[in-house]
């Protein structure tokens, strides 16, 4: 399981869990969890398996609402989509500011038709990378511009993080990082 420090923090917060509690469940100290979340330490394969078990417990609808709030309140350009259908579930204000139409024009609709060539290519490679099987939960990629006036995508770097939703489906958090 590959997960970023931000992903560990996000999943911990979605479960209303303190660092100390997560540390106790994983058999480490709180400082180790803090260092993971700041990407100062890398999880061992054994720790990653334990972390996966902790986070694999079924989330509940309140967690989905909390995730939506976290996305909407993010200071970074970010949006949450359904991992399979690419339907938009939530977007941060900085992400919405990039778009030339209001959020309502995109909410609940697939954003895949706006994908750049690089995003489409990365999407095609997800199955072989083990994304849908859960072997890969985070991916960083460089993307070119899509040339679309309504929902422009600028050239840059994005991170995709796969997050399980309460209905058993997966969401994908898309965050611009550069």
From TrEMBL:
Domain HTH cro/C1-type intervals: 8-62
Residues passing through the membrane, by range: none
GO molecular-function terms, A-Z: DNA binding
Pfam families the record matches: HTH_3 (PF01381)
Name the record gives this protein: Transcriptional regulator
Lineage: Bacteria, Pseudomonadati, Pseudomonadota, Alphaproteobacteria, Hyphomicrobiales
């Amino acid at each position: 399981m590959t997960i970023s420090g931000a992903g560990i923090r996000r999943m911990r917060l979605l479960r209303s869990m303190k660092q100390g509690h997560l540390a106790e469940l994983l058999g480490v100290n709180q400082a180790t969890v803090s260092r993971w979340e700041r990407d100062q330490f890398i999880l061992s394969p054994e720790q990653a398996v334990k972390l996966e078990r902790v986070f694999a417990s079924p989330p509940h609808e309140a967690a989905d609402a909390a995730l939506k709030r976290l996305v909407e309140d993010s200071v970074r350009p970010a949006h949450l989509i359904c991992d399979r259908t690419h339907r938009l579930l939530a977007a941060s204000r900085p992400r919405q500011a990039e778009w030339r139409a209001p959020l309502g024009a995109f909410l609940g609709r697939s954003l895949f038709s706006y994908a750049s060539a690089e995003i489409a290519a990365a999407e095609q490679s997800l199955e072989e990378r083990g994304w849908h099987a859960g072997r890969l939960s985070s991916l960083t990629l460089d993307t070119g511009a899509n040339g679309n006036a309504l929902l422009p995508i600028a050239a840059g770097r994005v991170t995709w993080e796969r997050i399980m939703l309460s209905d058993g489906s997966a969401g994908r958090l898309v965050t611009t990082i550069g």
